[in-house]
Amino acid sequence: MKxxxxxxxxxxxxxxxxxxxxxxxxxIVGTYGxxxxxxxxxxxxxxxxxxxxxxxxxxxxxxxxGTNHQIISRIIDxxxxxxxxxxxxxxxxxxxxxxxxxxxxxxxxSGITKKLVEHYRENRPFKTKTSKVLNVNGKxxxxxxxxxxxxxxxxxxxxxxxxxxxxxxxxxxxxxxxILSTDYVNKLFQPVHAEVLIDNTRLAYQEYSVVVSSAIRNxxxxxxxxxxxxxxxxxxxxxxGKASAFEVIRRLRRLYxxxxxxxxxxxxxLAKIVEIRSDxxxxxxxxxxxxxxxxxxxxxxxxxxxxxx
Length: 309
Fold this sequence. Notes:
The protein is α+β, with helices and mostly antiparallel strands. The protein is built from eleven helices and 16 strands. Strand 5 and strand 6 (139-141) form a beta hairpin. The radius of gyration is 20 Å and the shape is globular.
């Protein structure tokens, strides 16, 4: 059995900017584990198999929320029903939304890694938080969305330089656009034509400005919009329906603090399964990574344990 396996994403924005991070991590981990640097999803799958085969107890994720999504998808696929290692975010992303939501260890990538090694070397117990994840078409992550959410991510990635500042700029620009009635906000809220079933019951709407679910309340910038996300381990909190830009803006404070927003044409429930069907491919996001499909099924995924300190 081995101790710590660090999965370092060499293609993440921060890691490409600081290529020396890889060797630094290897120096810090030393004989207490291994630092893996897979360059492809195929290599990542092989790393997950090696981690299981060699019995690693802790997996450190050095990358952003998308990196975490890809890693846990392969870890879950490899381990299936078996007990999975503890997971730790090293905060190597631009937003670190999942780490913030799970109250992960604060600090730099090297600082967090040193804490993991020190705790393990001194045989000190870790403080952990258990969280469910979402299963979206057989992929796993913490946040899912189509409609407005997918449109927002498209704009967020346009032109590069994603991060908290750009996310805030989009919000402010959307508010100004709604007030001035420009096309920018219409692009964000362009509805999708789809059929949505929640627990096998079809909703009455013909088009949707948003279908969104999350396993964590804090979905970024401290917005706790999915306010019942962490309520039950075997249910997912979903919003599905129509909401205009003005309706969202009027409820921004409620969405920020995590109160029930009470949209008139938005179904707001805890569910076991959400199915979305469309004649044309729908864009959707899992933790910031983008996908397309004509049928999307979202269910509660397994419980994972993340290190907090």
